[in-house]
Amino acid sequence: MQMLAATSRSGLIPNSLVAPAANLLQLYKILFNKPGFLRSAVQGAAFLAASLIAIFAAVTYATVNASNHVTDIVLSNVGPMNVRFLFIYGTFIEFAVLVGLVLWRPNRLPFALKAIALFLLIRAVFVSLTHIAPSPIDPQAPAPFLNSIFYGGDLFFSGHTGLPFLAALAFWHMPVLRLFYLASTLFFGTIVLLGHYHYSIDVLAALFITNGIFQLSCWLFRRDFTTFRSSEQSTDRKPKRALRGRIAKWARRTTPALVPAEGARPTPYLVTMQASGASRGGEILERRA
Predict the structure, then answer these.
(1) What is the band of 287 on the pLDDT scale with cuts at 50, 70, 90?
(2) What pLDDT does 30 receive?
(3) Angstrom distance (rounded) from CA 137 to CA 197
(4) Do the Cβ atoms of 213 and 122 come closer than 8 Å?
(5) What are the structural domain ranges in the chain?
(6) Is the confidence at residue 23, as pLDDT, over 70?
(7) Is 259 left (phi over 0), alpha (psi -120 to 50) or beta?
(8) What is the separation, in whole angstroms, between the first and last Cα of the chain?
(9) What does each C-alpha distance from 70 to 133, 141, 161, 196, 237 come to in angstroms?
(10) What torsion, rounded to 10 degrees, do the Cα atoms 236, 109, 94, 127 define?
(11) pLDDT by residue (tens digit) across 174-201?
(12) Closest CA relative to residue 26, chosen from 231, 234, 233
């Protein structure tokens, strides 16, 4: 932080950027000095590494044992179109945005690692169950290393649709990011259908399965999820509470105060109990002034 201050005085970095950077470094220092946070982040990284191995093995197995492609109500009437550029480089951009969001708020790291790892692990199970060949796609072949990453027999369910939707659910408390990732979900869902990279059932089912994965992640990693959202407060509007507040203010402003009428005030009285031989347990007998 002293280096940042010195750099700011030299004019290399604007003063408006020094405070956020210093706060970010302070946040890193606080978090990574906590053994619990560091342990959770390491566990998430190990879980993610294991899930990557599982999904790689599942994709390889499904690709080698793929059967024939099948008809699809959407793919039979649309495309295939050459959308490889959007499909490949859109994925890289999406990945870069997510990494930036996590690095900007490192408290998001453990839950992000574990939720993505759980997503990949569950997807590996689905991929290994059924081995349908992909629908015929545009014949232009990409570079070999891109082909090995993006094109295989891992059809059900669509990871390009599911991962942005998982991010949308995680950032649901932030309207801008929520809309961004929902738009990304729609974008990639459309791209994979236009390019015939997935069947329509892969895209549709991804939304429901991903929601289940998110709920399971919140249950399994509830402490990490609380930490994930600890750097910002919810900005969702609460119209019902706001409406009740306005009504209460209006009622206090417009309701006339209850002022006793002039004249004789009512005589106070006291109700007493008096034992009676003829009564059972006593009766209310008199009103005393």
Answers:
(1) very low
(2) 84
(3) 7
(4) yes
(5) 37-228
(6) yes
(7) beta
(8) 79
(9) 8, 22, 21, 12, 46
(10) -110
(11) 999 999 999 999 999 999 999 888 899 9
(12) 231
Vertex 177: Cα angle to 186 and 209 (nearest 5): 50
Q: Are 231 and 173 in contact (CB under 8 A)?
A: no
> Which H/E stretch holds residue 45?
helix 35-64
User: What rounded mean pLDDT belongs to the chain?
Assistant: 77
Q: In angstroms, rounded to a whole number, what is the distance separating the alpha carbons of residues 199 and 189?
A: 10
Q: Which residues contact 233 (CB under 8 A, 6 or more apart)?
A: none
Give the whole-angstrom CA distance, residue 147 versus residue 88.
Answer: 10
Which tens digits make up the pLDDT trace of 236-276?
Answer: 444 455 555 655 665 566 555 555 555 555 555 444 445 54
Full-model pTM: 0.72
Could you tell me the two tokens for 65? 């044992």
Single-letter amino acid, residue 282:
G
Rounded CA separation 124/117 (Å): 10
Written as six digits, the tokens of 64 are: 């080698």
- What distance in Å separates the CA atoms of residue 239 and residue 218, rounded to the nearest whole number? 26
| DSSP class per residue in 47-85 | HHHHHHHHHHHHHHHHHHT-------TTTTTS-----HH
CA distance 203 to 186: 10
Non-local (6+) Cβ contacts of 116 within 8 A are 48, 51, 163, 166
CA contacts within 13 A on the Cβ side of 76: 5
**How many other C-beta atoms can be found within 10 angstroms of the C-beta atom of residue 276?**
11
Residue carrying the six token digits 């220092």: 29
Structure tokens at 193: 């259908």
Please compute, for residue 136, the number of CA atoms within 13 A of its CA located in the half-sphere on the CB side. 5
Element (H, E) at 115: helix 109-129
Give the separation between CA 236 and CA 231, rounded to whole angstroms: 15
